[in-house]
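OP here, attaching both records as promised.
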Amino acid sequence: MTRNNMSSAHQGVCWNNGRQAKQVELKDLRREVAGFARIMREYDIVEMELETEGLVIKLRSESKSSPPRSVEVGVEAISEDSHITITAPMVGTFYKAPAPDEAPYVRVGDTVLPGQTLCIIEAMKTMNEIQSEVRGRIVEILTENAEPVEYGQPLFILETL
């Protein structure tokens, strides 16, 4: 029986290079993986590989101390004048500042330069810096702090300079 033709009776079988490696209970495997993930978070471990009886499990996470990633943003013109809308490049949580007790990256009326961070969108526990692609002035911030955003959702209106 190949991997693609497994019947429901074989759901608890783990495969290693196409060969049956070990009979396991899926709930036990989930519990073990969750325990290792908890250890990784607690000790800030980025990658872990476990091997036992022919079964190999690789876990990888973003380090808590890793710097935010830079992400390209969508820009669309909203009229024939010099205003553009900056949209969310992903689904996540919108943050105006790098930390709750710090000043926001930008405020209405601020002038921004290409490459300047406007906000952070947290997606899957990764902080992604959203940067301006144009020189402009912030006309409006369309999202509240710590609110969920959808892909393509307008975040800022900028007047290009």
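Record two, same layout:
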Amino acid sequence: MGAAKGHEAGEPHRGSLKMATARGSQDQACTTDRDRQRPPVVLLAEDHEDTRRVYGLILRHFGYCVEEATNGHDAVQLVKASRPNLVLMDIGLPGIDGWQVSHILKSDPDTTSIPLIAFSAHIDSTDDLTDSQTFDGYIMKSVSPMELVRRVNAYMELLA
């Protein structure tokens, strides 16, 4: 799908993108050639393995590189290291929860501009996000595969 935009202007990334996950680094099919920028990177911070695998597979199928974090600490480290285009953040992460991660990332000048999307069954409306002022939007779980892609594409365009 052509709706998603690349991450950075300038020299494109060449070769295979190494993606760090809670299980360690792994080679993924996110490669670019010299005429294209790297595919957009989405960090999926989700502690439930089945949910993380399903939504990660969907996003990869539609051309996104997906990095995965299983807890808040890993999410903070991966965002700082990889500077993804967008973060889908579960609220109920173990250790440092999604609210705390969002405060950490939005208070850091190096990561404050990275869009954070609350990705949770525990957000009922934008009213839940008003006081925090750390999330740029939300997507309710459980979301259909096509709706997830549509929403991620829309956030990529809106927040780019």
